[in-house]
Design a protein that fits this description.
By secondary structure, the protein is mostly helical. The chain contains 15 helices and 4 strands. The protein has helices at 2-8, 15-23, 31-64, 77-108, 118-121, 130-138, 140-166, 168-173, 179-220, 224-235, 238-259, 296-307, 316-325, 337-353, 371-374; strands at residues 265-268, 273-278, 288-294, 312-314. The longest helix is centred in the middle third of the chain and has 42 residues, at 179-220.
Length: 380
């Protein structure tokens, strides 16, 4: 069953899955790379600081093995001398410890980045299950780690023994040198030895890093159902999104109807479309669309306009073009200036004609080529 589930994971991990894994402390790591980085850093530090570090250690040993005659019977001298030697040795080795500590953090973060998670350190009862522990030891991952450990040990052992055999004369000559020189030389030998062994570990790390990255990507892979479920959780379920869009539409329609009584004219289809225009020459560069709608909303726009005395003007081609080319709050396109100006002038003249003694003007017939806006053959 586990193999089948693994085979079903055909999709790459999504950014959310990667982020969730990082929050849990699950990031790619290579212990071989970390060990190699620590070894190389330690070898470099020993080679660079062998002189001053060896001198400080030699001074600490010299003071520890030297005692004045009058202090032989002092009961407190041994404690004080030990504390002095320990402090001097600690100070001498402090630079090396700092380098190694930095190497641990930097090497660990090379392929996985920084990741601090309390979830990874939290206590879990299932970790105490011996069956799971046995499964890890004798499972595929456990056998892989065993193979790597044996291969690493064999390679490092062969190189280390070869190098020690090559350096046997230098090691034996340490006993014939003064203490200070012997300590410095031994530190240099240790540094070179670590450097040689690190080169061997570098080969192992070069193989292990791509393998760990591949294994991590394989572990994070998802099934198609998991991708769909995550999308629903992230983007929202379709029914919820539909409900939100409906509420937004209701709010927009309510605001539109509240502003509709200030319109100068409502251009209609006459029944399918309705577009309300407003023009204030002191504030606007061109007439602006303050409401528009189709079918039921268009009907409601006509009703509200009639209730508030906003004139209706039937111009089907112009109404369709305005509905398709503008949004609420937009100014009308420049190519429609003439047609809309004719209608607004007619509305103003019509208002004047309501006064006694004035003749009723003839309504204009705007010349609108819908193909110019929608393209030939497109359904209107």
């Amino acid at each position: 069953m586990a193999d089948e589930a693994q085979q079903d994971r055909t999709e790459k991990a999504t950014p959310k899955r990667r982020e969730d894994a990082r929050k849990k402390g699950d990031v790619p790591r290579s212990r071989e790379l970390t060990m190699t980085g620590v070894m190389l850093s330690g070898a470099s530090a020993l080679l660079l600081m062998a002189g001053p570090m060896g001198g400080n250690l030699a001074g600490a040993f010299k003071s520890g093995f030297s005692i004045e005659r009058e202090l032989l019977l002092d009961d407190r001298y041994l404690v004080e001398a030990f504390a002095q030697i320990a402090s001097r040795s600690f100070i001498s080795l402090m630079p090396l410890a700092v380098v190694l500590l930095c190497a641990v953090f930097l090497s660990a973060a090379v392929i996985g980045g920084w990741s601090f998670s309390m979830k990874a350190a939290a206590f879990k009862v299932e970790r105490l299950n011996p069956l799971k522990g046995i499964k890890k030891v004798f499972g595929a991952n456990g056998l892989n780690e065993l193979f790597k450990a044996v291969a690493k040990f064999a390679l490092v052992a062969v190189i280390a023994v070869t190098w020690l055999w090559w350096s046997a004369e230098d090691l034996l000559s340490l006993g014939r040198q003064p203490v200070g020189e012997a300590i410095r030389a031994s530190l240099r030998i240790c540094g070179v030895s670590l450097l040689v062994v690190s080169l061997a570990l570098l080969v192992i790390a070069a193989v292990d890093v791509p393998f760990q990255l591949w294994q991590y990507e394989k572990k994070l892979r998802m099934t198609r159902q998991q991708v769909k479920d995550e999308f629903k959780e992230t983007e929202g379920r379709p029914e919820v999104k539909s409900h939100i869009r409906a509420m937004q539409q209701q709010i927009a329609t309510r605001r539109m109807m509240q502003e509709l009584p200030t319109a100068d004219v409502v251009i209609t289809n006459p029944t399918q479309f309705a577009v309300a225009l407003k023009y204030d020459e002191s504030k606007m560069g061109a007439p602006k669309v303050i409401a528009k709608g189709k079918d039921l909303i268009a009907r409601r726009i006509r009703e509200v306009a009639g209730e508030n005395g906003v004139p209706l003007f039937s111009a089907p081609p112009l109404a369709r073009v305005l509905f398709r080319t503008t949004e609420i709050g937009d100014e009308i396109p420049a190519r429609l200036y003439t047609a809309v100006a004719q209608i607004l002038a007619y509305i103003y003249q019509l208002n004047e004609a309501l006064k006694p003694g004035q003749r009723r003007p003839q309504p204009p017939v705007p010349d609108i080529d819908e193909d110019e806006f929608t393209g030939p053959g497109r359904a209107r």
